[in-house]
Amino acid sequence: MITELGHFALILAVLVAAVQMVVPALGAYQRDARLMSVAEPAALSQLTLLTFAFLALMHAYVTSDFSVANVATNSHSTKPLLYKISGVWGNHEGSMLLWVLILAIFGAAVALFGRNLPATLRANVLSVQASIAVAFGLFILLTSNPFVRLEPAPFDGRGLNPILQDPALSFHPPFLYMGYVGFSMAFSFAIAALIEGRTDAAWARWVRPWTLLAWMCLTIGIAMGSWWAYYELGWGGWWFWDPVENASFMPWLAGTALLHSALVMEKRDALKVWTVLLAILTFSMSLMGTFLVRSGVLSSVHAFAVDPQRGVFVLAIMVLFTGGGLALFAYRARELRQGGIFAPISREGALVLNNILLTTACATVLVGTLYPLALESLTGEKISVGAPYFNMTFGPLMLPLLLAMPFGPYLAWKRGDVYAAAQRLFVAALVAIAAIAVTFAVTKPGPWLAPFGIAIGVWVMAGAISELLFRAKAGNANLEEVLRRLRNLPRSVFGTALAHFGVGMMVIGIIATSAYQTERVLLMKVGDTVDVAGYALTFNGAKAGQGPNYKEQIGSFTVQRDGAPVTTLQPEKRLYDAPPQPTTEAGIYNAWTGDLYVVLGDEQTSGGWAVRAYFHPFVRFIWLGALVMFIAGAVSLSDRRLRVGAPQRARRSPAAVPAE
Amino acid sequence: MTRKQRRGILIGAGVAILSVAAILVMFAFRSSIVFFHTPSDIATSKVPAGQRIRLGGLVEKGSVVRGEGTHVKFAVTDTLQTIPVSFSGILPDLFREGQGVVAEGRIEPDGHFAADSVLAKHDETYMPPEVAKALKEKGVTLGEGATHETKAAGETASP
Question: Alpha-carbon distance A165 to A81, whole Å?
């Protein structure tokens, strides 16, 4: 019964969204406040209805109602509660419901917090937002309905793919969708601006916090997925350039560019046309990601759906919104008046460079992701584009970005002075050069390029710190004065420094683990010892065990370093009951310098076990860096100027940021 | 500098970076793309020896032989042709006789395939689509190939 009510609520939500799509836009066109006022209650009731629908599906999962086809296919009565709940979005239909729910949350947020927006802008934004909801609502109802019943109901469900039964992965999709869908706000604002033929700094001040929020969630969502792949898939890789990963990475790249260009627009009223275009493109990348993952065109673990009907539907949605957005842009962009001018060497110029490099990088990822699909559909030839392609194209584009990154915040708006910036970055450069020497000394003989990579990470981190210290006038004042100045810096300055610092950490993690990883694959009998990067790993044998919904083989390894015991690692091989599928649980010992990572392979007929042991130096810096970036976003978001719903107030007190 | 000149510089920078990227992309495509082939493709010598390829098909029943250490030999078949494969390392969890597999590596002069990575996708009902499609083209029906030896796998999938 609750399931049917959920289904009904979903249908109602789509109808409400249809009203919200048409009426407020009409009101904005006719300047009719009554028509425009429909938007707010519509957005709120849409959210209420979708929340109800989502909870109804969750209820079916928690109570293991296998008469619901979606539950029967993706859940199992013995599954732990957390995975019954996360199972709601661990499948195609449920995750699409989550998608539109998050869309509705963002729409309702504009309705609630956007009361001080210009009335027509708000009405148009909510209309565009609702049009996305209508498209995806229809998609769910017509091709991927999670509320379909089974007759007769099976005795038990087929279970959730065991490798998805994992805490980090339970929260990976919601964060990812917050990111994907969050960019719809930037899109809706861009379309509304084009409809009105007008954008200004207030527009950018509105778009930026939403973009920032979406970007934060996407950052942490991608990091969670990467971390999960690292410890769950059992070969210690943290990024595979798999099309599904790229699907989330492309909106991230475009969104990062958008964050920076919206900054220029807000502060200097420049780059308007570009920012609007980028807002459209960023959401297009989100739609592209949704298409790639949800249509089943890819051969990957994430592609649950293999149904051409769905693929064509999502493709149509993507073409409609991207094509429609770009067409409107082509038609109306010249209406947007040009704003402030700036010299090529300036803060604006640096942010433009950032934008060019990020969007180009995004384009290379897009080409690498789509080319195999295009080639196969055109010629039937099947190819795979893997890590070497992306390392060759994406890597070189990141190099100038990282080298230039510390300069950006040091350059003044309008016209900057590179030499002055370079002088101020002198200490950071010295630290980076020292890092080269230290890395060489510690790792020799090693790859000769890697120390330079480490140094680039250090350079970015040191540059971020030095900027904060410079602003606090460290060196010219006593400690108390410096601390007072630091406290008084706008939070967005801290946010920038912290985010750049996180990027530096991530670079160090990536370079260190790629260049200096140790790998041992061998056959071990009980009592055998192997040396992995200074750790002595002794195999004590393996025994059988039983988990809540799986059987397992647990290996036991004693880890020693310089004769002193360090820890015991217990990697597992599990066989889940439903669906019957083996998984690998790595045994991981984490030290500051890196992870010791042990995987139990197959038992050999000749006795002994196949064992794979790695040392991944500084690998955690990759995810810690992402976490720092997430926190940086939160710090920035807490800046009063950016607080959602406070643009007007901030407008009355401009010049909150020292212009250098 | 006029507004036009400034814009010119920006556009110039954009075009320059885009061209560099385009050149990188072309080079990368030329050197790093890996083609997918079936054992029949290789038998009909459509594949130059020494080129890095992906080989897809079914692991032939009874073909898995574990050697010294982590060396393992098995055969990949599309039921028309069979290619012997050698590999050193740990096979993925879902590697099973009679099931779909994709191996990446090179064909050696003696005709066997030296794989440096073996992929078996992480889903019990999952057949890599390129394998499924290639097999279908060869007229092979998969039928019950994907049903699994639930119990047997508990004692580790060894021959």
Answer: 11
**Least CB-CB distance to A602: which of B13, B18, B157?**
B157
Alpha carbon distances (Å) from B47 to A136, A655, B111: 44, 66, 11
Nearest CA in chain B to A584: B93
Question: Measured between CA atoms, how close is B27 to chain A, in angstroms?
Answer: 8
The dihedral through the CA atoms of A348, A349, A350, A351 has a sign that is positive
Question: Which of B25, B54, B65, B90 has the most A C-beta neighbours within 10 Å, making it the best mutation to test the interface with A?
Answer: B90
Q: How many helices (H) and strands (E) would you count in chain B?
A: 3, 7
- Residue at token pair 């979903």: A10
- Mean pLDDT for all residues in chain A: 88
Measured over the CA atoms of residue A94, residue A100, residue A106 and residue A109, the dihedral's sign is: negative
Helix, strand, coil abundance in chain B, percent, nearest 5: 35, 30, 40
ipTM of this complex prediction, to 2 decimal places: 0.77
Tell me, what amino acid is at A143? T
Query: What is the number of residues in chain A?
Result: 660
pLDDT reported for residue A646: 46
Question: Among A341, A363, A599, whose Cβ lies nearest the Cβ of B90?
Answer: A599
Q: Nearest Cα to A383, choosing from B94, B28, B115?
A: B28
Alpha carbons A475 and A477: distance in angstroms, whole number: 6
Q: Do B25 and A393 touch (CB under 8 A)?
A: yes
pLDDT digits (tens, 9 = 90+) for A88-109: 998 889 999 999 999 999 999 9
How far is A444 from A412, CA to CA, in rounded Å? 41
Quote the percentage of chain A above a pLDDT of 70. Answer: 95
User: What is the secondary structure of A40-75 as a DSSP string?
Assistant: HHHHHHHHHHHHHHHHHHHHHHHTT-TTBHHHHHH-
Minimal CA separation from A461 to chain B, in Å: 25
Is the previous residue joined to A445 through a cis bond, with omega within 30 degrees of 0?
A: yes
Sign of CA dihedral A41, A47, A52, A53: positive
Which residues of chain A neighbour B33 with C-beta distances below 8 Å?
383-385, 389
Give the SS3 label for residue A145: coil
